[in-house]
């Protein structure tokens, strides 16, 4: 089986999707052999010696790295609505991510002029700006995990599942922090800011203003705690609105403006990161820029450095997520 097919099989195993004529157990066994040694009959049994396999260079770390990298990218695409606002780019080792950000509301001002005159002020397009994002190394050190997997005590798919979910969670947290920073920077005196208890007219005016300034249709995003405060809307007594409220706990639309819920995450202090704010985003602008450099990196440690001779591995990815706002967005801070 070619390498790309092995990676696809591993991602399918992560998604619990049988591939072709293989069952999930057969896929797990096949991948174990591919990673830890095709010709070693002890792979998947308690007789397997991962210390000698590591010493003799029999473990295909590059394959594990490629599987986790591809799986992380796939999981990010299938995650929540916020991640659809991220423009992800993958660069080779040592490169720096560069994005060109074009203003969304750039336009020429048309003036009325008298016949036979040319008294107009010249105008030009200023174009976009170049934004550079430097990826940062994010990693975790594990011990003995590969030993238990190679000996069959732990499902190989479990390692892939935990690794991918952990890196997706780390990237999601970075994205949430970037989003919060953007909307926290909107001044309370700005026309793009509103606060107080929920008021239908206030939200309508904020959306209208943003759509008029940008020429783009807006969307509303926020945590479940925030969007459920959208109440008393005209038409909310319709059967469709009642069904949405019963099924999801919030309305799917505010008039013609779609509402998307962001699954909240915990910050470093174990508190919900997103406040009770409604974020008004103009258009489908990918205002978050994500950079990934190279593949996932796995580095085996030296058992002699540990008193108990346990085997360590460092697993790391180099990435960064930053908010680069091209259009005008708004925030409704709800009390």
How does this model look, in words?
This protein starts with a helix and ends with a strand. A hairpin with a 2-residue loop joins strand 7 and strand 8. The protein contains 9 helices and 12 strands. Helix 1 packs across helix 2 (24-36) and helix 1 (3-14) packs across helix 4. With 335 residues, the protein is α/β, with parallel strands linked by helices. The protein folds into 2 domains: 3-98 and 131-178 and 291-321, no CATH class; 185-287 and 325-334, capsid protein of prophage fold, CATH 3.30.1930. The protein has helices at 3-14, 24-36, 50-55, 61-77, 145-150, 156-184, 200-214, 224-227, 239-248, and strands spanning 86-91, 97-101, 129-133, 136-143, 193-196, 218-222, 253-254, 257-261, 277-282, 288-300, 312-323, 330-334. Strands 5-12-9-6-8-7 form a 6-stranded mixed β-sheet. The chain has a 4-stranded mixed β-sheet with strand order 1-10-11-4.
